Amino acid sequence: MKVIDGHVFLGKTIYMEQSPETLIANMDKFSVDISVVVAPPPGPFYTEVNAYVMEAVKKYPSRLAALYRANPHLEGEDDRFREALEQGFAGLQLDPTSDGYGVGSEIMEPVVKLAEKEGVPVYIHSGDSIFCPPEAVADFASRFQGVNFVTSQSRRAHRATKNCGNLHLMTRPFPTLSFLRGYADNIDLDRLIFTSDAPIGNLDLELKRVELSELEQETREKILGGNLRRIIKIPWD
Asked: Which of 5, 63, 121, 226 holds its CA 20 to 30 A away from the CA of 190?
């Protein structure tokens, strides 16, 4: 079984710092085979940080895959995203809260339509902000059935994603108690993707939460990589 961390930050901002070498060392320490990396917020401009992320992927092509962080407010962002896909980016990251637009805004459509055309997933940060509640992400995802969307874990997210088959849910913080106490019936195990959000989140802690959940091996394999393998093109060998 290959263990995949589906969302990891790479670079340096006011919020955090993580170099490719630090990331790879942590992956080796905790037996993670592949990480999907993305530049951290804040924006509004991501050209340099996206380039930094791609340099890391080229340096460690069998260990890292990259999401292109886009700000759809910027003119020509769909063209830049198209070029990024040609360079090797494997998906799209949108962050309405950081970049100041609402989920469902028309400005999102050009980059999302391109993701649909190219068959790559779209990650959308969601939470309690008025810009990106999980219900709005689910409504938006229902308009683009040909796209696999991935959004954040939250209290309301499970209910919001329940009837939206193309919307997947990141695990951080992993819902250990839901599994232990039998409250996980409303969680679609085929659409749950392990993520640590390291270094903002903690990889060791998230892996421990998976272990403590006492999931069956087949379920664990789905969450720790199998589900993600179906929706993103990343290195497996």
From this structure: 63
